[in-house]
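Ops channel
N.P.: pipeline sanity check, posting one input/output pair.
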């Protein structure tokens, strides 16, 4: 018998995590070897054990799925990450797939689809359900139709010089790395990130990164 694919489950809802573990246990080719209820928790556990694939909830307190995925990929590039979300958000689907996710699944998928997604990610490196493929195509069409905005034009908005510096690197580095690069405390970085989310109406790190890219603060 082949060695089962080792799975990590990361979700802040205990019932969902327990239910997913029970579902995955019905497939001989899968084995849940890690469970965590937050980004910081999974990062701590990964120091001692690395699964093959992590099913990662996008909406979590403390550290959302985007920031958690960034840290996992930076420290353990061999681990495959499949994002789980309750919401059908085409922009988010495209953004996550374009920024390192190996797959994206809605939480109402059936058990066979989840199993097939994990197997395909292990075999080919990626899993694109139809709705993700459509989201990627739609975002490409939207981007091709948008006029390019130059950085000088974007900088005419009401951002301080420090906020512009943070917009230029948000998403490329973690909070501590941003603090080190800008010679700031992590509390100051968090303060600026909160202000930027308020100014841009961004509800998550991923939305703030998307704003920075779309408005010319980051290079192509």
């Amino acid at each position: 018998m082949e060695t089962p694919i080792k799975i990590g489950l990361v979700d802040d809802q205990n019932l969902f995590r327990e239910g997913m573990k029970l579902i995955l246990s019905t497939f001989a080719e899968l084995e849940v070897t890690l469970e965590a209820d937050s980004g910081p928790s999974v990062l701590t556990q990964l120091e001692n054990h690395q699964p093959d694939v992590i099913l990662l909830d996008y909406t979590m307190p403390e550290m959302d799925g985007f920031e958690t995925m960034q840290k996992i990929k930076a420290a353990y590039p061999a681990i495959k990450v499949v994002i789980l979300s309750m919401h059908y958000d085409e922009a988010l689907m495209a953004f996550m797939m374009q920024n390192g996710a190996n797959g994206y699944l809605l939480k109402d998928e059936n058990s066979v689809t989840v199993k097939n997604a994990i197997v395909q990610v292990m075999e080919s490196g990626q899993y694109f359900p139809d709705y993700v493929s459509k989201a990627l195509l739609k975002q490409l069409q939207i981007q091709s139709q948008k006029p390019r905005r130059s950085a000088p034009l974007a900088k005419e908005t009401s951002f301080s010089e420090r906020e512009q510096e943070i917009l230029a690197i948000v998403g490329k580095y973690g909070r501590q790395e941003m603090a080190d690069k800008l010679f700031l405390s992590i509390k100051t970085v968090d303060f600026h990130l909160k202000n930027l989310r308020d100014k841009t109406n961004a509800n998550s790190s991923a939305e703030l990164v998307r704003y920075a890219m779309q408005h010319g603060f980051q290079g192509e």
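N.P.: looks fine end to end. Strands lie at 5-10, 30-36, 53-57, 80-85, 103-106.
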